[in-house]
Amino acid sequence: MENGDDRMNRWINEKRLIASFCDLVAIDSLSYRERDMADELLRRLKRLGFEVWEDDAGPKIGGSAGNIIAKLKGIVDKEALLFTAHMDTVQPGTAKTPLLSGKRIHTDGTTVLGGDDAAGIACILEMAASLREHKLDHGDIYVIFTVAEEMGLQGAKNLNPAVMEKVKANYGFVLDDAGKAGGVVAAAPAHVKRHITIRGKSAHAGVEPEKGIDAVRIMAEAVYHMQLGRLDEETTANLGMIKGGEAGNTVCGQLEILGEVRSRNPEKLTKQLKAMQRGFEEAARNWGGAVEFEDELLYGAIDLRRHPDLQKLLEKAAEKIGLPMDYHSSGGGSDANILNSLGFPCVTLSSAFYAMHTVQEYVDIEEMIRLTEFMLSITQSVEAVEKAGVRNLTTE
């Protein structure tokens, strides 16, 4: 695009972006209590020309609002894009007052700011407003604002399948990572939660300990030989909660252990899960006990290398506006993990907030503008449908 950087910048209304962000931050929107935020966003999206739906995730998770799914119909035949952010904030997050100091917005230090993730929401709204105001060509644009992201991605996990059938996006962008515009979470791990039950046999510890089977001994032997913590740059394993026993004078007859394994590599994930299971089973056999496992895949992994077309789009859009790219990995999950599992090639973008989840949180206005430029550039960089052909949205 000729002189693309300057044009993108001129398309963005900085005052409107700042005002929108401050208005959103002032709305209390704690996890499971996003109703006021959802109502405001429904109004704003409708004013911008979106068709909107609210799903039933709220009742499912005990919240006051569902996820918002919206579609802005394209005016040309280009590949469809999905932009998402989450509506909820962490504590202390009520009665937030945004304060402007130079090119930063922060609070008085008694609450979080909520830039995580109001910065993402405000930039999405400004992108849509700029597209509409300047009559820019774009394909179908979908927006999802999720609830209860801070509570273990509960909103994304409960996206209504019937509503999600309306979303026909080729690529997705989750605005929910700290740092400068141009940051991209290119890899994030799959996460398996594991519940382990060790069954021994209770006995009086002073009178007849020989008749007992000590679940603690079984656990101790298993853990002694087990690799935990950071196994390599892609894989971690942890046993974080242990519960059991009846009394100090009783041989422990049962232990409940809650742990996890994370890895960006599916083979390593499976290998570690099997190794941990084998260790507990061998220890249980040695002491005459038994062990049971219950695993839950909380979300799958992200690997941008599996989606070269998405990476090419990111780099093309960044080059148009002279934005340096910063690819990095994450040890945690985001809504992008869930959306990838649903079949949408998706990455998380850095969204101009810093010191998240603390009362020192702030956003950088210049970086919010750059992020909005980046999203606009993405909308102008996607392929025409007739050139791109029909894409298979299932994960590779």
UniProtKB/TrEMBL annotation:
Give the PROSITE patterns listed for this entry: ARGE_DAPE_CPG2_1
The record's PANTHER family line, in alphabetical order, gives: PEPTIDASE (PTHR42994:SF2), PEPTIDASE T (PTHR42994)
Instruction: Report the protein name in the record.
Output: Peptidase T
Return the NCBIfam families for the record.
PepT-like
**Domain Peptidase M20 dimerisation residues, every copy:** 194-286
Q: What gene does this protein come from?
A: pepT_4
- Tell me the enzyme class: hydrolase
Q: Name one GO biological process term.
A: proteolysis
> EC number(s) in its UniProt entry?
3.4.11.4
Q: Name one GO molecular function term.
A: tripeptide aminopeptidase activity
What does the record give as cofactor? Answer: Zn(2+)
Specify the species: bioreactor metagenome
InterPro entries referenced in this protein's UniProt entry, alphabetically: ArgE/DapE_CS (IPR001261), Bact_exopeptidase_dim_dom (IPR036264), PepT-like (IPR010162), Peptidase_M20 (IPR002933), Peptidase_M20_dimer (IPR011650), Peptidase_M42 (IPR008007)
Q: Name one Pfam family in it.
A: Peptidase_M20
Which keywords annotate this record?
Aminopeptidase, Hydrolase, Metal-binding, Metalloprotease, Protease, Zinc
